[in-house]
Amino acid sequence: LFKSLMNPFWRPPNLVIHPNITYATSEELRDALDNSNQDFDQPRKLMLDVITSNKKSTKPRPVLIHVHGGAWRGGRKDIFYPYEKLLVSEDDWIIVNIGYRLAPKSAYPNHLIDVKRAIRWTRQNIASFGGDPDFIVFSGDSAGAHLAAMASLTANDPQYQPGFEQVDTSCRGVVSVNGVLDLTYSNMINYFSKQVAMLSDVNMDFLNKHSPTTVIQQTKDCVPYLVLAGQRDALVNSDVSVKFKKQFDEARHKNPCTLVLFPGGRHISYIAWSPRSLYAARIIQTWCRQLHNDELR
């Protein structure tokens, strides 16, 4: 098994991939075109992949929705992460890898709205793939972790659910991998304001409103979090995750935030197979497994 896992191209046997499923409504697709001067690449961003196994199961399978990273301006949904492979092959989870529109053509918070549209689709359709619509975990890496966290922290907020205000967009837990969980640190303020939100100037009120480290202090009954960070990450300092954990604990949420720091971990060391990424994958797998087991008790 270890030799298989160390092969970066290894995929679990009996894998079933349902690619490029459009999660937006026809009206949302038209709006995406109209707001981008008929850029037909924009509707193609509003797609997701469902990954499952062909094992027979009599019980609904737990679901993980993953939001890819890429600095809110790049990235793609097609990466099949090591921990996703473990969850599908060993724990019979269903993975939903989602795409979303990117800056500069689509300004934040459109990213967040798109993530919630994908959650809506999953809630309404995943049962037909054998998934449990009542047990959904969010995960994300880098900028995707920011979006996963914000989706959790703004669950059922009508401001970010235009046209589907009554849909339940909550989750059972969040996994952040090298996540950008604070928009107010020095090298993020200008970048996010002007290159992601496409604002003409810095707006600290806006940044605080969309910074998980700030929002977590104002949110009640937060779901459990697993936060992983590499201490040699040159793009997102691990202090960001440490600060999030501190703010989470100080808010006295009834659920825990588990922080795991990797002394030699770099920003994308979790993507390709390596001893470090396998270790991280096992941590995520164990945390997700325990979360689901607690639900079944």
From TrEMBL:
Q: Which Gene3D superfamilies match?
A: alpha/beta hydrolase (3.40.50.1820)
Cite a single Pfam family from the UniProt record: BD-FAE
Which InterPro entries is this protein grouped with?
A: AB_hydrolase_fold, BD-FAE-like_dom, GDXG_lipolytic_enzyme, Lipase_GDXG_put_SER_AS
Span of domain BD-FAE-like: 51-247
**Which residues are named in the active-site annotation?**
142
Record PROSITE patterns: LIPASE_GDXG_SER
| Hydrolase among keywords | yes
Q: Does the keyword Hydrolase apply?
A: yes
Q: Which UniProt keywords apply?
A: Hydrolase
Q: Which family does it belong to?
A: Belongs to the 'GDXG' lipolytic enzyme family.
Q: Write the protein's name.
A: BD-FAE-like domain-containing protein
Any single GO molecular-function term of the entry would be: hydrolase activity
